[in-house]
Amino acid sequence: MPEMKTYEGGCHCGAVRYRAETDLARVMSCNCSHCQKRGLMLTFVTPDHFTLLSGGDGLADYQFNRKVIHHLFCPGCGIESFARGRKPDGTEMVAINVRCLDGLDLTTVTAIPIDGRSH
Description:
This protein is mostly beta strands and about 120 residues long. Helix content is about 5%, strand content about 40%. It has one domain: Metal Binding Protein, Guanine Nucleotide Exchange Factor, Chain A (Beta Complex), CATH 2.170.150.70. The longest helix is centred in the first third of the chain and has 6 residues. The chain is globular, with a radius of gyration of 13 Å.
């Protein structure tokens, strides 16, 4: 049974901070051109499990390909600590960059490889 926990995280310089409730049982490592170059490891939550604490006004937005995901990053340090988008069925989702969660030992996380390059 997945264990929901509350995590805090954010960008490198600290301007962007958030709180997210997730279980980290389904962390993905995508090989699309964006995720691979950024080294992203992602878990997904619905907006009711995500609270942006600071830095929302200054976020820069990058979109590519079908432009359905808003890759949001801090203009100061350039870190993409989360993104916003929709699942194919239209459900809003927030993609949390697991590497940006405070105090998380990444050796305890198993990432599932996703072939985003082929889609």
